[in-house]
Each structure stands twice: as C-alpha cells, then as structure tokens.
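Changelog-adjacent note: as of this version, every example in the card shows the full chain rather than a window. The one below runs 119 residues end to end.
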Amino acid sequence: MSERDQVRLAFAKSIQEFYTFRFMHNDPDHRNLMWDPENKIYIIDLEDAYQINDDKEPTKFMPELHYREWGIAGPETNCHMYGLDPMVPHDGKCIEDPDNEILEKMAADAAGKELVFRK
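Full-length structure tokens:
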C-alpha cells in the first residue's frame, strides 16, 4: 500500500477519535497533521481546536469531505490542478463513518490506478 494511502488510513482513525471526543478544528490542513512510522497521525496546532458541548451527535468522518478539507486528498493540496488520489471517494460517493475494513478495501481497490481529474 502506498504511503499516502497509509497516511489516509491513519488519519481516518485519528479524526474519528477526535470527533468522538466532540472536538472540531478551525484550521484543518495537512500542516496540522504529524505522521509517524508507527502508522499513526497526530492532530496538532490545537489552539485552533474546540470542544462542542451540546447533545447533538458528534461529527461523522466522511472521506470525500475530510480528506479534501485537511489537504490529503491528492499529491498536492490543489486537487483540481494536480488530481485526486483514487482512494478518495469522488463523483458524489458519500461514505459516512467507514470502519477499518471499508477504508482498507478503498485503499486496495485504488492500488495501481491513475489520479482522478474532475470533468
């Protein structure tokens, strides 16, 4: 599996945990993520994070939205110009809160495929 896909899998686990604890981040960007060789992502720059104190459901991780929002959807942050990695859902494929099995299948299905460019 490519390192970019490993980063996305680790990010999914970290952001799901972040959202479960009812946190949000006002500065979502790849510069606020730290990757380590243990396949873990750390969300940093937490002065821009806040906790939601209400009775609503916590935010659900949606790969199509959150990979783009955090700047890890493609080889560069500008996916329109540089393309979208095939692991990232596109063309309206909305997946809400996928488990590890679904995420690993997404990565396996994307292996060897070309970057996706929007039409």
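Structural remarks: The radius of gyration is 14 Å.
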